[in-house]
Amino acid sequence: MKPPGLILIGDIISEEFENELMETFLEHSKNRASTQDELKNRVTLHYGYKFDYKTNLVDLTAPLEHPIPASVRKVLDIIQPHISITPNQLTVNIYQPGQGIPKHVDTHSIFTSEILSVSLGSDVVMDFKNPTSGKVLPVLLQRRSLTVMSGESRYLWHHGITPRKTDALQDVVERQLRISLTLRECTPDPCTCNYPSQCDSQNYGKPQYCVEEERDAARLEEQYVSAVYEEIADHFSSTRHSPWPGVVKFLNSLPTQSLVVDVGCGNGKYLGVRGDITVIGNDNSYNLCSICQDRGHEVFACNALNIPLRAGTCDSVICIAMLHHITTTQRRITVLENLAGLLLPGGLGLVTVWAQEQHLDLESTESCKPCPTDGTEEGVGRRHFNSQDVFVDWQHKKPGTVPGKSGTVPDKSGTVPDKSGTVPDKSGTVPDKSGKVVLQVLSCVCRGGVSGAVPDKSGTKLYYRYYHVFVEGELAGLIRQVPGVELVQVTYEKANWCAVFRKL
Predict the structure, then answer these.
(1) Rounded distance between C-alpha atoms, residue 467 and residue 322, angstroms
(2) N or C, fewer C-beta in 10 Å, the chain?
(3) For residue 139, what pLDDT band results from cuts at 50, 70 and 90?
(4) What are the C-alpha distances in Å from 22 to residues 8, 15, 19, 142, 475?
(5) Share of the chain above pLDDT 70, in %
(6) Is 364 exposed, middle or buried (CB count within 10 Å of its CB: 0-12, 13-18, 19+)?
(7) Sheet containing 178-184: which strands, arranged edge to edge?
(8) Among 163-167, 317-321, 432-436, which range has the highest average pLDDT?
C-alpha cells in the first residue's frame, strides 16, 4: 500500500549512470563545489536555490552560483514523461548507513505540485504518516527509482526515513551509502491546495521554528517552555490545585516509607498527598520551585535531561504532564532513561502526557471544543489537535482583569488577533509541517522576546507553550526503548496517556 498520489517508477536510470551521478556528488561534497550543509543526520548539497533548514523556505531573490548540473539535466530529460513540473531547485542528500531524515511535509508556499526524488546507491524504506488518522505506511524506495509525490501524498502525508542500519523487508537488508536527488519547482505564488491544515499559505504566518539540531531543540524548550513557566508561575499555580485521581491512586499503592521523586513537579500538588512516604520534587522553573518551598515541600531546580541524583536510590518516580514539553524523540527517551536510572530494582515509574486523541472517553466529539485560554484549569479533552507538535496558548492576566475587556475587538470567529492580524486556528494549535518538528511561530510570539508574551491594554499577556501531543502507542513505544525496564500498563485518563513501568 502507498499514500494516494504517490508514484514509484523503478529502474529509471542505468547502473552505469547511477555510479556516474554518485561519483559526481561525492566529489562535489569533498571539494565543496556547491552550497553545502552538514546536518546532524546527513550532508546536503544545493543547486539552483538554497533550501534554508531554519525556515523551510527558499529565497527566490538569491539564486545560487551553482545551477543544476548537466548530469541531472540528463535525468530530467529521462523522467520528463512522468512529471508535470519544471524543477529549478535541487537538493542532494548524502546518507551514510544508519542515517535518516525526520518526517516532514515539503513547504507548500514555496514549492509547486510535485516533489521528485531519485534514489541512488541503496534501497531504503521511507515511512509515510497521515497526520489526521495517524496511519503509517512503509514504502520501499529502490535504488535507481523515481518517486513522485503529488496530491495527498505531497500536501498531507508526512514522509521520512528512520535512522537505522537495516530495513526489514522479506529479509533483513543492510543499508549502504545512499544519495537522493530531490528536485522541486520553486514558485512565488501562494499555495491553494485542498489541505489547509498543513498549508502555510492558507492559514499561518510565514515565520517558523525548525528543530533539526540539538541546539535548536534546547533553544525552543528554553523559549517556549522554561521561560514561559517562569513568567506565568503564580498564575499557573493558582489553576493547579486538584490532584488527578489516577496519580493519587498510584501514590497510594506504594509501600510506607517509600522514597519518591516527582520530576517536573510544577507547584507541588502531588508532594503532600501522603504523609507516610517521602516525595522530593524537581522542576526546571525556579519560580515554581519557590512556590513548592513556600508550601514546605522538599524541592530542587533542574532540567529533566540532567537530574543530579544518585542512580538506583528511589522506590518510585512520577513524571506528570512534563514529557510532552520535550521537543525531539531522542530527548524524550533520554528523560525516560533518567527516570529509570533513579529507580531501585523493582521500583515503579508513572508517566503521563497529553494525548492527541482528546475525546476517547467522551460520549461524542461534540464536546470537543477549544479550551479556555484565560488561565482557568485547562479543559483537557476539549481541544482538537490537527498535529502532534503544537503551540498552546495561555492568557496571563493581572488580578481583577475581566476577560474580553482589553479593548481589543475580536474578529468574526471570536478570536482576538494580535497587532499583525494573525490569529490561531479554532483549536489554538499550529500544525507542524515537518517531521523535524517544524512549528509555525505566530507573529505575536516572535515579537514578544524570550517568553513570547504580548500585552494588551488591560495588561493581559498571551503566551505560547510548546507541546508534543502523543498518539496511541507512542509513549509505550518510547518506554520499550529504555534499557532495563518493563512496561506494566498503559491507560487513558482525561485525554492523557498514562504509563507505568518497572525497573528490572
Answers:
(1) 9
(2) N
(3) very high
(4) 21, 11, 5, 15, 39
(5) 80
(6) exposed
(7) 6-9, 146-149, 115-120, 178-184, 89-95, 43-47, 35-38
(8) 317-321
